Amino acid sequence: MKTLEVRRHSLRTPPEEHLSKEGLELAEDVGRSSGGFAAALSSPLPRARETAEAMGVVPTRVEELWSSLGEADDLPWPATFLMCREALARGGGAARLSGRLVASALRLVQEVPEDTSALIITHGGLPELLAAALFPAEDARAWGGALRCMEGIRITFEGGLPVQIGVLRLDPGRTRL
After folding, report:
1. Which residues pair with 120 in a beta bridge?
2. How many Å is the maximal CA-CA distance in the chain?
3. Is residue 165 part of a domain?
C-alpha cells in the first residue's frame, strides 16, 4: 500500500505570500506528527514551499497546477467537498481541472516505493476537488466543510488505485480558512 497526503498550506497574514510565525509553528507541529514522506510535490507559491520545508520535507517536484483553482471558475470559494462534487457533475472548468489533478497525484504516487507516503502541499479547494474526483461514490457531506489551513486528506492506494480516504482535521483554534 501507498499513501498520499494532500494538505493546504499553513497560515499567513494576507496579503503576505510568506507564512506567519504561527504558520511556521503549525506546519512544524503537523510535520512532527505526520511521519516521513518518500516524495513531495508543492505549489510554486512561497507559502506552499515554506509549509513543506517547515514540515521537514524538501519538495522533489514543484507544479504550477497545484497553485490555484484557475480554470475552475464554476467552483465557489470556499469550496466544500460537496460543492466540488456538484461542480464535477456539471462538467466545465472544475471537471477539467480535476482530471489534471488526478493525473498529477497518480504520477506522484507511482514514483514512491511500496509502503511509503507522498505529500502534496497546495491551496484551498484543490484537495477537496481531488477527493471528489477520486471517490465519486463516497458521501461528500460526511467529509465536512472546506479545509482550513494545514488540513487535508489522506488517500490509501492499492495496486495504483485509490481505495480509502480520510479527512485530516485540526483544532479549529489553531487554523482558519
Report:
1. 6, 41
2. 42
3. no
Q: Taking the model in full, what pTM does it have?
A: 0.97
Residue 16: left if φ>0, alpha if ψ -120 to 50, beta else—which one? Answer: beta
Cell of 148: 482550513
pLDDT tens for each residue of 130-173: 999 999 999 999 999 999 999 999 999 999 999 999 999 999 99
DSSP string of 50-96? HHHHHTT---SEE-GGGG--TT-TTS-SSPPHHHHHHHHHH-SHHHH
C-alpha cell at 35: 511521519
The CATH number that applies at residue 37 is 3.40.50.1240
- Distance CA(118)–CA(75), nearest Å, equals 27
| Measured distance between the N- and C-terminal CA atoms of the chain, rounded to whole angstroms | 32
How many domains does the chain fold into? Answer: 1
| Cα 105 to Cα 135: distance, rounded to the nearest angstrom | 14
Q: Find the domain containing 125 and state its range.
A: 2-150
Inside any domain, residue 155:
no
> Mean pLDDT over residues 90-94, rounded?
95
48-71, pLDDT tens digit by residue? 999 999 999 999 999 999 999 999
What interhelical angle do 93-111 and 126-134 show, nearest 10?
Answer: 80
Q: Give me 39's grid cell.
A: 516524495
Residue 164 falls inside a structural domain: no
